[in-house]
Design a protein that fits this description.
Elements lengths: L2 H6 L7 H24 L3 H31 L7 H28 L6 H23 L7 H32 L3 H35 L1
């Protein structure tokens, strides 16, 4: 029997949607803390914000593992099992990216954090808020497919902005920074931030795939 036909007449477990919402809430909290970390005036404050972000990262891991456990125990899922898995995995990866960015700030202890880092952390926050909207509305996939597609485009636009911020920063960094070690520190920190927006955009690609299959 055609699996998609069978799915139409079989009740689907709704328990995944609240877990996705919880995961995106953790993401928003972590993104706020990253902005605070990038704006912090001293290394002690940066270390404290990293500690708080690490707590959110562990909570994100716990939620994603809960989703994976539920996936193993559930017969009928709201959409394909691999899409449920990938959505949880990449939402968690965005949280991991925030954690890695803050970790580099705390460990490397750069002399100062450039405005570009604050700008990138702001773009990560924008992406996090969009991901929160997606997880709020994905349970009404058919009714809200147009809005969800719009959110995916927003994630793509944010990733493009982050690319531009990072590339312009690197150009200026190599022109102005004479301390080679400081140059490497700052490049690594901002690269991790830019990479985090890539992961957020990938969530948008997963959502587009789900829309094509089910909307």
């Amino acid at each position: 029997m055609n699996n998609s036909f069978f799915r139409r007449f079989t009740p689907k477990e709704p328990k995944f949607f609240p877990l996705f919402k919880e995961l995106s809430s953790v993401l928003v909290v972590a993104s706020d803390l990253l902005i605070a970390c990038a704006k912090a005036d001293n290394h002690e404050q940066q270390a404290e914000y990293y500690k708080q972000i690490k707590e959110q990262e562990r909570l994100g891991d716990k939620l994603s593992h809960q989703i994976f456990d539920e996936l193993n125990a559930t017969f009928i899922t709201p959409f394909d099992r691999e899409d449920v898995h990938d959505l949880a995995m990449y939402l968690d990866d965005v949280i991991d990216g925030i954690n890695s960015s803050a970790k580099r700030i705390a460990m490397y202890k750069p002399k100062s954090i450039p405005d570009n880092a604050v700008e990138l952390s702001g773009l990560i926050k924008e992406a996090s808020l969009i991901l929160a909207k997606i997880t709020e509305e994905i349970d009404s996939l058919k009714k809200k497919s147009f809005k969800l597609k719009s959110y995916c485009k927003d994630l793509h636009d944010i990733e493009n902005k982050a690319d531009d911020v990072y590339e312009n920063f690197v150009i200026k960094l190599f022109e102005d920074e004479k301390d080679g070690i400081e140059l490497l520190k700052l490049k690594e920190i901002l690269y991790e931030m830019e990479k985090t927006t890539d992961m957020a955009e990938h969530v948008g690609k997963i959502i587009r795939t789900i829309i094509i299959k089910y909307a």
